Amino acid sequence: MIIDCHGHYTTAPKALENWRNRQIAGIKDPALKPRVADLRISDDELRESIETNQLAKMKERGSDLTIFSPRASFMAHHIGDFEVSQAWAAICNELCFRVSQLFPDHFVPAAMLPQSPGVDPKTCIPELEKCVKEYGNVGINLNPDPSGGHWNSPPLSDRHWYPIYEKMVEYDIPAMIHVSTSCNPAFHTTGAHYLNADTTAFMQCLTSDLFKDFPTLRFLIPHGGGAVPYHWGRFRGLAQELKKPLLSEHLLNNIFFDTCVYHQPGIDLLNTVIPVKNVLFASEMIGAVRGIDPETGHYYDDTKRYIEACKILSGADRQQIYEGNARRVFPRLDAALKAKGQ
Ligand SMILES: [Zn+2]
């Protein structure tokens, strides 16, 4: 089985975006604020938006199952207050749940949280609980910077985040560390802010003893870990100077990287530096980079091709990257598959 651990509902029907625009307009003028019931998207519309997009590409490229969360750049936690984020997260999570019900063999949901700048993350727990208990979510996306590029939240190692971690441990779910749209013009959203955040999250964990407090907490750092694998020597050297244990014990029981790296040399480097047990297959399609690479004639985000062509991986390594590691990092996914005899 090939599990893609990083997919977003980037192709949701236009009505969703229209509702969001009205919600945003309603922040300034409450008369414009839409009701949740104003958003009507039929099952047929959901089905079409998936069948002609993600599912078609999964079949073309040969992946079976996608861990599917709301569109990351649309989370935009910096907009409005907690109430705004709460209504928006509930709607987006419900849509991903409905997709998972319509295509139970191909999509399993992961939740966005109703984070809001300066608001205690504890407020996210009711939505998190609903998504796990009622919607069968197997993971969450945690935004380390709900300000959208101004980085004024405490680091991920701070006790500020502990209520979320306690729930993650209780439910045995991992978090993908995933920022949203940058509203800071210095950082391009998908070209800089995302990759900066991946690198920043790793370093926040490195300088801390977070995983001593939460030995079973698991973070999935997307986009191949940002700059982390490329600069592994720098991180090892910094850990050494900080008198931290070797990174293999300090971080690699808890931190995992996905394969959303869009060229062969990048995937080769990721797999040269990071142990196979810490790498999970992902493509993030249909996402940030949708074009065809003129050097190869294939889509940049067709990442399975790079895993297949990576010469240092054995067949058993690929099986771990495609399936085994995802089952280990997402135990609720493993349990759901086993319940279906898979
Ligand atoms: Zn993403």
TrEMBL record:
The keyword Iron-sulfur does not apply. InterPro entries: ACMSD, Amidohydro-rel, Metal_Hydrolase. The lineage of its organism: Bacteria, Pseudomonadati, Pseudomonadota, Betaproteobacteria, Burkholderiales. One of its GO terms (cellular component) is cytoplasm. It comes from Rhodoferax sediminis. GO terms for molecular function: carboxy-lyase activity; hydrolase activity. This is Amidohydrolase. Residues 3-331 form the Amidohydrolase-related domain. Keywords: Hydrolase, Lyase. The keyword Acyltransferase does not apply. It holds the Pfam family Amidohydro_2. One of its GO terms (biological process) is secondary metabolic process.
